[in-house]
Amino acid sequence: MFADVIVDIASSEVDRIFEYSFTDERILPGTRVSVPFANKIICGFVIAVKETSDFDPKRIKPVYEVLDDIPALTEEEFSLMNYIRKKYFVPAALALRLFLPSEMRLGKVKNLYTSVSSLAVNEDEAVTAAEGLRKSAVKQKALIERLINDKTERTSILNSEFGNAAVKKLEELGVIKTEKVREYRSPYKNIDCVSKNVTLTEAQSAAVKNVTETDKLVTLLFGVTGSGKTEVYLNLINNAISSEKTAIMLVPEIALTPQMLRQLRARFGDNAAILHSGLSAGEKFDEWWRIKSGEAKIVIGARSAIFAPIENIGIIIIDEE
Hints:
- By secondary structure, this protein is α/β, with parallel strands linked by helices.
- It folds into three domains: 2-100, PriA, 3(prime) DNA-binding domain (GIY-YIG endonuclease, 3-Layer(aba) Sandwich), CATH 3.40.1440.60; 113-182, no CATH class; 202-318, Rossmann fold.
- The chain contains eleven helices and twelve strands.
- It has helices at 75-88, 92-96, 102-105, 123-131, 138-150, 155-162, 164-172, 202-213, 229-242, 257-268, 281-293, and strands at residues 2-7, 18-21, 32-37, 40-50, 65-66, 113-119, 152-154, 176-182, 246-250, 272-275, 298-301, 313-318.
- It is flat.
- 30% of the residues are buried.
């Protein structure tokens, strides 16, 4: 198999498609790969795959590595890439960079994993195992009881509370198991989110109704500060989510995102993700993947969040425009 690849070099001199061979079944249009290029290994974006090549297969270099398990880019983003490069006369690689966190593209951040322990047997068997331990195995018995009650716990916490020896011994006996799980670096995880039951005013209800029922693609909502526009936004987003669609909320400044995120998380929980340049590399990477995987269906951020990897969009709200 062969892949058409755009190399991640923002130069008009290499702004064209390069062919590489591959055997990895994970390679699909949109996949990020590393490829040999001019005596270096660099990142590239697969835009198409095919069974044959117009060139001598012996002269085509193979893909060096697949960087993601699922394609990072979509067909829609490739279409937007073509629009941007034609309208603004920029290389394809420069347009594609808009859709990916820079730290991810440069390989400076990866998935974060943590070790979690849980029972490897059912509760009755765990109780029997605890009863069969020596009387002096107090920490091991307490550890079993802890996992019976809490089901899972970080291994580092169990090591701290019960000792590494107790954890290892129960693993050897097959009573508990330890595995690595993906841990998301959540921005503003300690933000205070309190859900409130709000009854819309007549004007707010009319605004929601007009936006929902109009045939127009763009609607202007005008209201002075404190007039209740935010509650209208929240109801429109709720309507989109209820219709199994997604939503993007753009605010004028990064400083305003925590305030809006607080209200979104109070209403929608972890269904809301945030994207802006003020996040740490790990936070931005994990929020991007939460959106990409469909775990988060609402995106809030400054203007660049319009390039978030979200699909099936029901509404885009641009505040203070």
